[in-house]
TrEMBL record:
EC number: 2.5.1.3
Keyword Transferase: yes
Protein name: Thiamine-phosphate pyrophosphorylase
Family matches, as CDD domains: TMP_TenI
TM segment ranges: none
Species of origin: Aureimonas phyllosphaerae
Keywords for this protein: Transferase
NCBIfam families to which the protein is assigned, alphabetical: PRK06512.1 (NF005080)
């Protein structure tokens, strides 16, 4: 890939840190209204199936009304019941991902994560998911992205047509390392939602950084 055909990465937000109720919903609404957000991964984050469905049911319309895709993680029944746009399999199991793709695609977007080697990632890619996620929901507490995730995303983006999401770090100052992988999407959670009141400003800042990086690459 040359600089001329470089794709601008888009943000994916993960709800891991969002609390139930009005405060969490307000923060998410502000965040996805503050700049380009492609999709939102709705993370159970330890919730039991009933409370998680209630949580997702309130978020899905909010996400969709903003023009983003609502993707429910881990619970296929919940994804169907709340009319989500997609399902994310975080098991790291090729058979589980294959089963999800076979059962849900193309009605739903289906992606997977938990594949931590090139061999496993390629095997998962043979299932033809809509995207691969290099990272782990809830594992972005460090300021910098995990080096392994960056390396896998950069390698994947250079040779595989299936889009990938790379997990960013908790500090937006490190966003450049995720941008440089040339992954099509960058997932942020702690960097946006650690301070609910700053969620919109963080999304604005992230998009400015992406735009600046693209301008510099094209110069």
């Amino acid at each position: 890939m040359t600089e001329d055909d470089r794709i601008r990465p888009r943000l994916v937000l993960a709800t891991t840190l969002l609390p139930d109720g009005d405060a969490g919903e307000a923060a998410l609404k502000a965040a996805i209204g503050a700049g380009d957000v492609a999709s939102v991964l709705i993370d159970p984050a330890g919730r039991q199936p009933g409370p998680f469905q209630d949580f997702a049911e309130r978020l899905v319309p909010l996400i969709q009304e903003a023009g983003a895709a609502a993707i429910v993680a881990e619970d296929t029944r919940c994804a169907g019941r709340v009319r989500a746009d997609g399902f994310h399999d975080a098991s790291g199991s090729v058979p589980a991902l294959r089963e999800a793709v076979g059962r849900l695609s193309p009605r739903l977007i289906v992606g997977g994560s938990g594949f931590t080697t090139r061999h496993d990632a390629l095997e998962a890619g043979e299932c033809m998911p809509d995207y691969m996620f290099f990272g782990k929901l809830g594992a972005d507490s460090a300021a910098e992205p995990l080096r392994r995730n960056l390396e896998l995303a950069e390698w994947w983006a250079s040779i595989v047509e299936i889009p990938c999401i790379v997990q960013g770090g908790a500090d937006l100052a490190t966003l450049a390392s995720a941008i440089e992988t040339r992954a099509e999407f960058i997932a942020l959670s702690s960097a946006v939602f650690a301070d609910l009141g700053a969620a919109a400003a963080q999304v604005e800042a992230a998009n400015r950084m992406i735009d600046r990086a693209m301008e510099e690459a094209a110069a």
